Amino acid sequence: MIGILGGGQLGRMLAMAAARLGMRTHIFCPDPDSPAFEVTPHKTVAAYDDEAALAAFADAVDVITYEFENVPAATAEFLAARKPLRPGANALAISQDRLAEKTFLASKNIPVASYRAIESLTDLEAAIAALGLPAVLKTTRLGYDGKGQRVLRTPQDAASAFAALEPKPLVLEAFVPFEKEISVVVARNAGGEVKSFDAAENVHTNHILHTSTVPADIAPGVEKHAAMLAKVIVVALDYVGVLGVEFFVVPGEERPSLTVNEIAPRVHNSGHWTEAVCLTDQFEQHIRAVLGWPLGDPARMADVVMENLIGDAVNTVPGEIDGNTQAHLYGKAEARPGRKMGHVNRITRRR
Amino acid sequence: MIGILGGGQLGRMLAMAAARLGMRTHIFCPDPDSPAFEVTPHKTVAAYDDEAALAAFADAVDVITYEFENVPAATAEFLAARKPLRPGANALAISQDRLAEKTFLASKNIPVASYRAIESLTDLEAAIAALGLPAVLKTTRLGYDGKGQRVLRTPQDAASAFAALEPKPLVLEAFVPFEKEISVVVARNAGGEVKSFDAAENVHTNHILHTSTVPADIAPGVEKHAAMLAKVIVVALDYVGVLGVEFFVVPGEERPSLTVNEIAPRVHNSGHWTEAVCLTDQFEQHIRAVLGWPLGDPARMADVVMENLIGDAVNTVPGEIDGNTQAHLYGKAEARPGRKMGHVNRITRRR
């Protein structure tokens, strides 16, 4: 019985992959309408700080994983003391805090955007002087899909942005003049096996992922380098599970270079394409790692473009979907604006 | 909410495909340990003749389908009067009774093994005279995986075989000198769309499917003919859903010919390969048809061999499984001899 913290679509898809391997799953989530509650009969509807519920949950399962990186540290600690938590609390701590993340990456000589920690407006003014403008001011915790950040274009933007963003501290990141964004979804198991899926080229709309295209239109050397950086990260974290690494591809005089934008200690939206064209998709790969199994083959069988179905775009399925397209809907009742309702994978070239 | 009669692995896989399309499922099955109960929170554990339970089930769902062909006719009738039952009761009636099946197929000029209805030992002796030996004596109802049949090799075999097989009536089928067995899994929706998956070449061990190999090693003309016969069947039945057609390939002077062995009004073991290499697998195709959606693309992305994991063969997963292999386990607790515990799909050639 695999325990999954979080009941959104990622938890739902993890539970479905676990079922394909004959495993049972138990979802723990405070939201009674969690999409993942519909793919297993075992659930706990409780807050992440409800220790009695967490203890019963830990008793009921053999191993615990999670589908979102903002699992409270106290929750992770409480559970990890009772059952194996994979990936571990360390990966959570690093990914939850942008400063911790950048410090960690920089310590491994992984290129990241230049940055400064910001506790006060004075810090911010000094940082702007050091990094230049434009720059991006971000909260260090709880930001996602464009929330919790402000782009600063002129020095006059600083004060209002600083006031608007809570909680402190913040981080100022130099603007990265990227030509494209790519990501690598990488897996590592306890035996130290590391396998990554092919890099995807990602396009965001309103800070939300719109499409992921595989193969990415990048030189083989760039793709290899991205895979190598992803490997360094999971090895350095002694990581068990699937991790998503988002990169900026920055043009260079001789060749493009890579900067790591973010890491996510979970299955990743930019990896949903694997479900359509890989023998082992990212969800199964994560479950294999969590179970202590050998990793599966990440090779892909076709070229593909994943497109998110946001809000009422979900209504294009099935009527506006052609034969080359695989649809995956998350079973959410309300198609609210900006809400991830599903995705489609379109085969662009069969190999 | 899709209601599924039957909670075995086929129902489990149908429920998982329905979840991928964002649909909820409710499983109705008398067996409290049904594999399908682990992939949805909605279930009814009751006998198929429990009218109160059936009525509540029908109330709770929008459409009903089934994963096994021996749904009692009264159950099908009771439910179909309340909610759409797809495939319909007609397909069940024909598939449940070998005589009805053969009569139906013969009426459409579909080649079947020569046969005679057997009510008495006298019938059997006359039938043996007409069809020759060897021949196969079968019950007309409830047989599967080799149960409810006897091969007659000499006239002396007749009496004991007749006595052993219940219930009557029986059917005697002429032995078909096949060189191989193939199957086609075909789908039809209410709009009349028909799509079939590539033919699989099937090898049985102890009457249970062992492997399905795609592509089948047959001439293109034979494959086209099989697909055509499968289409004739689903059109003649005004069928909605996925149907499996098993064929004998019989050598001939100029070219091989096809004889239909059996039809099954459900997703089929010889179609499990679709899960690994098709954008739309047989389970999703069945759900699409049941929902009234357009059918998906059945084209395959690679060559593949499916192998059933029977009994303790299931223990070869994961340790003895290589990277080219996708495993699917059904979550059954007890690996009894002859029990279908899972299957693996092995890519033999990427295209």
From TrEMBL, chains A, B:
<dbReference type="InterPro" id="IPR054350">
    <property type="entry name" value="PurT/PurK_preATP-grasp"/>
</dbReference>
<dbReference type="GO" id="GO:0005524">
    <property type="term" value="F:ATP binding"/>
</dbReference>
<dbReference type="GO" id="GO:0034028">
    <property type="term" value="F:5-(carboxyamino)imidazole ribonucleotide synthase activity"/>
</dbReference>
<feature type="binding site">
    <location>
        <position position="204"/>
    </location>
    <ligand>
        <name>ATP</name>
    </ligand>
</feature>
<feature type="binding site">
    <location>
        <position position="98"/>
    </location>
    <ligand>
        <name>ATP</name>
    </ligand>
</feature>
<dbReference type="InterPro" id="IPR013815">
    <property type="entry name" value="ATP_grasp_subdomain_1"/>
</dbReference>
<dbReference type="InterPro" id="IPR003135">
    <property type="entry name" value="ATP-grasp_carboxylate-amine"/>
</dbReference>
<dbReference type="GO" id="GO:0006189">
    <property type="term" value="P:'de novo' IMP biosynthetic process"/>
</dbReference>
<feature type="binding site">
    <location>
        <begin position="143"/>
        <end position="149"/>
    </location>
    <ligand>
        <name>ATP</name>
    </ligand>
</feature>
<dbReference type="InterPro" id="IPR040686">
    <property type="entry name" value="PurK_C"/>
</dbReference>
<comment type="similarity">
    <text>Belongs to the PurK/PurT family.</text>
</comment>
<protein>
    <recommendedName>
        <fullName>N5-carboxyaminoimidazole ribonucleotide synthase</fullName>
        <ecNumber>6.3.4.18</ecNumber>
    </recommendedName>
</protein>
<dbReference type="InterPro" id="IPR011054">
    <property type="entry name" value="Rudment_hybrid_motif"/>
</dbReference>
<dbReference type="Pfam" id="PF02222">
    <property type="entry name" value="ATP-grasp"/>
</dbReference>
<keyword id="KW-0436">Ligase</keyword>
<comment type="function">
    <text>Catalyzes the ATP-dependent conversion of 5-aminoimidazole ribonucleotide (AIR) and HCO(3)(-) to N5-carboxyaminoimidazole ribonucleotide (N5-CAIR).</text>
</comment>
<feature type="binding site">
    <location>
        <position position="181"/>
    </location>
    <ligand>
        <name>ATP</name>
    </ligand>
</feature>
<comment type="pathway">
    <text>Purine metabolism; IMP biosynthesis via de novo pathway; 5-amino-1-(5-phospho-D-ribosyl)imidazole-4-carboxylate from 5-amino-1-(5-phospho-D-ribosyl)imidazole (N5-CAIR route): step 1/2.</text>
</comment>
<comment type="subunit">
    <text>Homodimer.</text>
</comment>
<dbReference type="Pfam" id="PF17769">
    <property type="entry name" value="PurK_C"/>
</dbReference>
<dbReference type="GO" id="GO:0046872">
    <property type="term" value="F:metal ion binding"/>
</dbReference>
<dbReference type="InterPro" id="IPR005875">
    <property type="entry name" value="PurK"/>
</dbReference>
<dbReference type="Pfam" id="PF22660">
    <property type="entry name" value="RS_preATP-grasp-like"/>
</dbReference>
<comment type="function">
    <text>Catalyzes the ATP-dependent conversion of 5-aminoimidazole ribonucleotide (AIR) and HCO(3)- to N5-carboxyaminoimidazole ribonucleotide (N5-CAIR).</text>
</comment>
<dbReference type="GO" id="GO:0004638">
    <property type="term" value="F:phosphoribosylaminoimidazole carboxylase activity"/>
</dbReference>
<dbReference type="InterPro" id="IPR011761">
    <property type="entry name" value="ATP-grasp"/>
</dbReference>
<dbReference type="InterPro" id="IPR016185">
    <property type="entry name" value="PreATP-grasp_dom_sf"/>
</dbReference>
<feature type="binding site">
    <location>
        <begin position="261"/>
        <end position="262"/>
    </location>
    <ligand>
        <name>ATP</name>
    </ligand>
</feature>
<keyword id="KW-0067">ATP-binding</keyword>
<dbReference type="GO" id="GO:0005829">
    <property type="term" value="C:cytosol"/>
</dbReference>
<feature type="binding site">
    <location>
        <begin position="173"/>
        <end position="176"/>
    </location>
    <ligand>
        <name>ATP</name>
    </ligand>
</feature>
<feature type="domain" description="ATP-grasp">
    <location>
        <begin position="102"/>
        <end position="291"/>
    </location>
</feature>
<feature type="binding site">
    <location>
        <position position="138"/>
    </location>
    <ligand>
        <name>ATP</name>
    </ligand>
</feature>
<keyword id="KW-0658">Purine biosynthesis</keyword>
<keyword id="KW-0547">Nucleotide-binding</keyword>
